[in-house]
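U., I forgot to send this yesterday:
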Amino acid sequence: MIEVNYDLGEYEEYITQDTLDNIQKVCDKILESENIKGNFEVSLSFVNDEEIRELNNEYRQIDAKTDVLSFPLIEIEEFNDLKEHEPMIPVLLGDIIISLPTALEQSKEYNHSLNREISFLTCHSMFHLLGYDHIEESEAEAMELKQEEILSQLGITRLD
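Result:
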């Protein structure tokens, strides 16, 4: 089980219950697909382009906006130990930060809904929180395949 804690910031009017439901479904499905059992928590915040640029610069030394940032709180070695552990108190996996203005731009660019774009960004970020990366081409291909598989299983397609 995973609890998602939201900070909608100034974007409450853009985030529908449908979007929140999809975020929850994506997070749950990823844990299920990775055969991870336990009591987990993730923090998801929506920010503007300037805020995400500042975070990207501070933590990644890249002075540019981006669509999503992931801040895992568990090292991969620790995470493997948690796969079999079902703590009473939720284990915080980390933080997901989404730039809503960039998500809006990308939803228009890719000709799908904001709901689908936020679901995709959440999916992408959740895999980062679980230790996946896309620095190497083979890693990127594996991660992309997993993302599309999850979204497809949930019926969250590019046509949404």
